[in-house]
Amino acid sequence: MSAKRILVTGGAGFIGSHLCKKLLEQGHEVICLDNYFTGSKANVTGLLNYPGFEIVRQDVTLPMQFEVDEIYNLACPASPVHYQHNPIKTIKTSVLGAINILELASYLRAKVLHTSTSEVYGDPCIHPQTEEYWGNVNPIGRRSCYDESKRCAETVFFDTYRQSGLHIKVIRIFNTYGPNMHPNDGRVVSNFIVQALRGEDITIYGDGKQTRSFCYVDDLIDAMVAMMNTEQGFTGPVNLGNPAEFTILELAEKVLSLTGSGSKLTFWSLPQDDPKQRRPDTTLAKSKLGWEPRIGLEDGLKQTIAYFRRILA
Ligand code: NAD
Ligand code: UDP
């Protein structure tokens, strides 16, 4: 495989930092672009040992110029607390970010992979979710700044593809967790682990019977790189996630038992439009990428707990 120069937007975030590392390990040059809204320099400064690594502080809502062969577009806050903090900015990041990235990719005729989300399915009425499902999204709720702007970003990608034949790839990521999540990220896996390690109450929203399917980050990164390397004309969207499904209560029990914590479960109101169930149908990923997740929830949680023990010490 020949070495490429690759731009990773949102590269200092949780998933982006793992992706930068993987691409550098494969011998590529990587430019990590980030505005540090939810990402952190600490996630990527260790990678500066690779001579082919550069970090650029920039916002994807502004036009940008780089000379690269491939682009992975990850820039966007992903945790509900952060994407709802400044919803208009979230919409700009998703939609203007997609437009800017596609302009750059079109100018360079570069291949571009966009990270969409299982949230395009909203509170899904079919289960598990296949890529053909159009979703059940409230267009005016608190989650819609994220859901609808991610849906619009997909539209921008596919309209560009239809207009110009640009080499695009769209993936829909389902709940992914692992090291490099920020302790204040606000998503369920990091919240529960941090609470358990600090001996604080575990915050269950609603009755905890809602489900999610949790994918360990290493599995996701393998699939992202495999997707980028699929043949021209295969655009996706492709669901990427681990189809093993758990209730939020089951997750809390697992975290408590793996940390040996005596934290108590406490019950809080369920956020508006919180999806009741979520599980990816990964048939397409299996057939097109030859990919299946390998790391089960317990093993992935062990790695993630070890990471949080280190950074909270
Ligand atoms: P994250 O919040 O850790 O990373 C997002 C990164 O984007 C951060 O480093 C942040 O600073 C950066 N960013 C935000 N706005 C920006 C802007 N305007 N300009 C430049 N950089 C900006 O989240 P993550 O979990 O690593 O998610 C990465 C991508 O994957 C996101 O696009 C997210 O929507 C998508 N995704 C993630 C999950 C998941 O479970 N982790 C699920 C579905 C989709
Ligand atoms: N959740 C919870 N306690 C928390 C954080 C989240 O019970 O401290 C719930 C949340 O209501 C949702 C699920 O866990 O039902 C997953 O939430 P997360 O924010 O991780 O992701 P998303 O809702 O985007 O899938």
From TrEMBL:
It holds the Pfam family Epimerase. InterPro entries: Epimerase_deHydtase, NAD(P)-bd_dom_sf, UXS-like. This is SDR family oxidoreductase. Its cofactor is NAD(+). Keywords: Decarboxylase, Lyase, NAD. It comes from the Bacteria. Residues 6-233 form the NAD-dependent epimerase/dehydratase domain.
